[in-house]
Design brief:
This protein is of the alpha+beta class. Among the domains are: 105 residues, Arc Repressor Mutant, subunit A; 137 residues, ABC-type transport auxiliary lipoprotein component (Rossmann fold); 101 residues, no CATH class. The protein contains 26 helices and 14 strands. Strands 9, 10, 11, 12, 13 and 14 form a 6-stranded mixed beta sheet that branches. It has a 5-stranded antiparallel beta sheet with strand order 4-3-2-1-8, with helices on one face. It has a 3-stranded antiparallel beta sheet with strand order 5-7-6. The protein is globular.
Length: 596
């Protein structure tokens, strides 16, 4: 009988088996999705050479058109599987493509004679080895929102927070793909059939939980269900004091990984067991803050700020709470309720404290990046912090979302869209990520795509104020002034913020309704006597009315007030009528933005 040869590539601590189409790290089998396997093989076969993105897409998808984000996602998944935090394998060559940079050894192994399908049964040892390999393949898990029972109003945020943190902890394991929060959140409050939902989500396993609070005792019932069979792989019930919720969360994450047959390294065990605070009360305040932050509204951010501040007061060394506080200030600032001169220093102080306490925290680097971008316009420093956050946690959707804002402000539009698409893949139904992608389409003058994106966002959450405002902006830029005014009017009826009035006045000015635009400006002048009114909003209305001198006067006031809205002046279409004026170029330079 002829011998068969197995074709293998070795690099670093990995072996790529072409016959089994499996990537091995020691005894651990990492089964790659087909296109991800083909991407790795292509890079290895061209080791040391730059392959352009266009060539890679033509080779990997020869029969259909795909966007660059598809390739970027494959590279992103490869880097996660290769654990590039330990060693760099794939180099991104700016404006060119990718290069596999580590040495590759090509070997062939004899694997015995070619046998027919009627070969003898494998030995018990062979079966055991095969089972061991199968347990190390990548498994997808959906952690469903907890079902809460009883009348304790605080139980919702507690249950949501624990489930989210279990999701976040397990997502760090390379053998596990955890379905994002936004995809599972639609099942909140529903009695569910775990097997059916698992099929809908494309998950291999589903975790279902129930929470009941009896005074200071928390009762949690959990079960892990295999989707293909409907079998319960594991189930248990915990009775814990509220002061023990940190240990409860650890126990749940560890038990889940054990019953998924995931073999953890010592480093992975440490990551699962990591606590950012030892104070249970501070942790509960933090969970409450995250619950309100996830509402993505003005009231939600205000309450989140209060809760994170409470967590810090209880534990002044709580780095994660500091970064969340900074994040909340930045998100709240988009509503234009307080002056950036008031919010900016608070956000910066929180971000710096987070980094001083823990410079390995991706959230802390993201918080500082946003401060550098929003309030200091220190663009190089901001980008360095964004990239550091992504390097520390490539699965951090909000880091990619905010980095996309930075890239859009710089006029690097295609790069911005790549990051937005990656953020969406990581958290497909997150309201803010979807809304900001619509805003970016406006900046790219892709108004049809903006409208489609924002309508989809509002279909998921009709109460999302910023999405309503952005949709009104998109219709206005497309010249459908009646629709734009209707959306902005609806937003103003929900919350008559100066920011909303500014965009409404701009829409009326663009549509030729000068009298209404002037009345809105007068309303803003009245509001300014008792609350903060962003100067940028007044400048927008003057711009729409063709009053250039007044528009630049107000934009200069916005610059002095550190208005974050000016940061996107290079790309925003609302000021296109001012671009040929030398004062516009001068304003860009003052903002440290290079004119086109």
């Amino acid at each position: 009988m002829s011998k068969r040869l197995k074709h293998i590539y070795e690099f670093g601590s990995f072996r790529l088996d072409l016959e089994e189409r499996t990537l091995w790290k020691g005894e651990e089998a990492l089964n790659l999705p087909p296109k991800v396997f083909e991407t790795l093989l292509l890079l290895i076969e061209r080791q040391g050479n730059v392959i352009s993105k266009k060539e890679m897409m033509n080779i990997l998808w020869p029969d259909r058109y795909v966007e660059e984000a598809n390739l970027s996602q494959n590279i992103f998944l490869l880097r996660k599987m290769l654990r590039e935090s330990e060693m760099r394998y794939i180099e991104t060559v700016p404006k060119r493509g990718y290069r596999f940079v580590v040495p590759v050894k090509e070997i062939q192994e004899e694997i015995g004679p070619d046998i027919s399908p009627t070969a003898a049964e494998p030995t018990p040892d062979q079966k055991e080895n095969a089972a061991a390999r199968n347990t190390q393949t990548v498994t997808s898990l959906a952690v469903l929102p907890a079902i809460t029972e009883g009348k304790n109003g605080d139980l919702d945020y507690l249950a949501d927070g624990i489930c989210n943190n279990i999701r976040r902890s397990l997502a760090q394991l390379p053998q596990l793909h955890v379905i994002s929060h936004s995809l599972v959140s639609r099942y909140k409050g529903q009695e569910v059939n775990a097997q059916e939902i698992g099929r809908e989500l494309g998950a291999d396993k589903v975790l279902v939980s129930r929470f009941l609070s009896l005074g200071t005792i928390l009762i949690v019932a959990v079960e892990l269900v295999e989707v293909s069979t409907g079998w319960q792989l594991w189930g248990d019930q915990y009775h814990r004091s509220l002061s023990d919720i940190l240990q409860l969360q650890d126990d749940l994450a560890t038990k889940i990984s054990e019953h998924l047959f995931i073999k953890l390294t010592e480093e992975e065990k440490k990551r699962l067991a990591r606590h950012y605070t030892q104070d249970a009360d501070a942790y509960q305040a933090y969970l409450k803050g995250r619950y309100h932050w996830n509402r993505h509204c003005r009231d939600g951010y205000e309450r989140a700020i209060q809760s994170f501040a409470e967590a810090i007061a209880l534990d002044p060394y709580y780095a994660l709470a500091y970064s969340a506080l900074a994040d909340s200030y930045v998100s709240f600032d988009f509503y234009g309720v307080l002056s950036p001169l008031e919010i900016g220093p608070k956000a910066r102080n929180a971000a710096v404290n987070a980094l001083l306490l823990d410079d390995t925290l991706a959230e802390a680097h993201l918080a500082l990046a946003c401060v550098k971008m929003m309030y200091e316009r220190a663009w190089s420093d901001a980008e360095r912090e964004f990239l550091k956050a992504i390097d520390l946690d490539p699965n951090y959707a909000q880091a990619r979302n905010w980095y996309s804002h930075f890239l859009m402000a710089m006029g690097r539009i295609e790069e911005s869209f790549t990051q937005s698409e990656l953020a969406l893949k990581l958290d497909p139904l997150d309201d803010s990520i979807n809304q900001y992608l619509g805003w970016h389409y406006i900046h790219a003058r892709q108004f049809n795509r903006a409208i489609s994106q924002l309508e989809k966002t509002l279909a998921n959450n009709a109460d999302f104020l910023l999405a309503r405002v952005t949709l009104g902006m998109a219709y206005t830029q497309r010249g459908e002034f009646d629709k734009g005014i209707a959306e902005l009017t609806k937003a103003a009826e929900t919350d008559r913020l100066p920011l909303v009035l500014g965009f409404l006045g701009h829409a009326y000015g663009m549509s030729g309704h000068t009298d209404i635009a002037m009345r809105i400006m007068e309303e803003l002048e009245g509001l300014a006597k008792r609350t903060y009114v962003p100067p940028y909003c007044v400048g927008l209305i003057h711009s729409a009315l063709g009053e250039k001198d007044e528009a630049f006067e107000w934009f200069e006031k916005a610059y002095a007030a550190h208005s974050e809205w000016l940061n996107w002046l290079k790309v925003t279409p609302e000021v296109d009528g001012l671009r040929t004026d030398p004062r516009f170029t001068e304003l860009l330079r003052k903002l440290n933005l290079e004119p086109d």
